[in-house]
Design a protein that fits this description.
The complex is a heterodimer of chains A (192) and B (147). Chain A is α+β, with helices and mostly antiparallel strands and 192 residues long. Helices cover 33% and strands 38% of the residues of chain A. In chain A, the strands form 2 sheets. Chain A has an 8-stranded antiparallel sheet with strand order 2-1-12-11-9-8-7-6. Chain B has one domain. Classes of the chains: A alpha+beta (192), B alpha+beta (147). Strand 2 of chain A pairs antiparallel with strand 3 of chain B.
Chain lengths: 192, 147
């Protein structure tokens, strides 16, 4: 009887400990940060910006200036050049991983692909110091960006919220002869 | 003699409590070192609570322009400060170029700005709560001016 009571007591303590750990883990979701790092080796300049995504998500809906209203950016019809971006994205979303666009020119290479749930854009400009641009956006973020009811709006706030749920990712890198720009998401508050 | 001691103890206690109240919102620290042409050093350490009080004492018309400009941005400022206060310490912006270093960070409930260049070293640290109170005071002055 005493052994049984002891076993029940141990079980209770274990259950309490586990539930406490679970509650703590659920109550404190890991903060995620967007980092922007710009290095210009020719001038010896560098800029680092670190911003919690929760802060960006809280600030964006409060800004009402220019084309940005309540977290939505209004885009003129001319910016789409008559292209139905939503239809294209819907087609990409349902398509399997593939390379959709490959352009090879004398001065420029462009590649647009879908890989592991990410939309990848790669541009190599051979005329300007070999500038190389790589953009990797999770499809969930692209979906969130175009989740508004209005055709000419992008929901930036929703995209930021979607970024918070995405894993660690390098979103943008731009590299030329002297400059290096990097934008990425992770759960570290510093860029190092 | 005992009565005098009690009175002295009361005064000292009140002064200490007042000091504690004034310092309850933290301290604002300003440290400026001019390196050229002559070395000057200015150091100010003041209770943060005094700043919104001082702002309150400034006539509204003197704050009119600043408050009119800051008012449309109040929801954004409130959201940013609230998130900043709740978040952990971090470096928000760091800029390095030859001869210059600028750092904006959140550290221990305060916003810290450090600027170092070949002529000056500037360090400013202000508690977020004091910044909130001061900005609210400035924004409120706008409505008083417009009324």
């Amino acid at each position: 009887m005493q052994k049984a009571m002891r076993a029940i007591g141990v079980c209770c303590v274990l259950a309490l400990t586990i539930s406490n750990l679970a509650v703590t883990a659920m109550a404190a979701p890991t903060e995620r940060y967007i980092h922007i790092k710009v290095n210009d080796s020719s001038k010896g300049e560098s800029v680092n910006v670190n911003l919690p995504l929760s802060m960006a998500a809280a600030i964006l809906p409060t800004v009402n200036k220019g084309t940005l209203h309540n977290g939505h950016v209004t885009i003129g019809a001319a910016d789409f050049n008559g292209v139905d971006v939503r239809a294209i994205l819907q087609a990409i979303r349902t398509a399997p991983d593939n390379e959709f666009v490959t352009v090879k020119e004398k001065d420029q290479d462009v590649r647009v692909a879908k890989s592991n749930g990410d939309l990848i854009v790669h541009v190599l400009d051979k005329s300007k110091d070999g500038e190389k641009v790589d953009v990797t956006i999770p499809m969930k973020v692209v979906d969130a960006l175009f989740s508004t009811a209005k055709e000419n709006e992008l929901d930036v706030a929703a995209a930021v919220r979607a970024l918070s749920d995405a894993g660690d990712a390098v979103l943008v890198t731009v590299q030329d002869a002297t400059e290096h720009v990097r934008i990425w998401i992770d759960s570290h508050s510093s860029a190092e | 003699m005992v009565l005098l001691g009690k009175v002295a103890l009361g005064i000292a206690g009140t002064a200490l409590a007042g000091l504690g109240l004034i310092c309850s919102e933290g301290m604002i620290e300003v440290n400026v070192v001019e390196k050229q042409p002559e070395v000057h050093h200015v150091y100010v350490l003041a209770p943060a609570m005094l700043v919104p009080i001082a702002t309150h004492l400034v006539p509204s018309r003197k704050l009119g322009r600043a408050s009119a400009e800051i008012r449309p941005w109040m929801p954004t400022i409130r959201a940013a400060l609230e998130q900043l206060r709740a978040g952990e310490d971090l470096t928000l912006v760091e800029l390095r170029e030859p001869g210059q270093h600028v750092l904006v960070a959140k550290s221990g409930g305060s916003v810290v700005v450090d600027v170092t260049d070949k002529d000056d070293i500037v360090h400013v640290s202000a508690p977020i709560r004091a910044i909130e109170s001061t900005v609210e005071q400035v924004a409120a002055a706008s409505s008083e001016t417009q009324d």
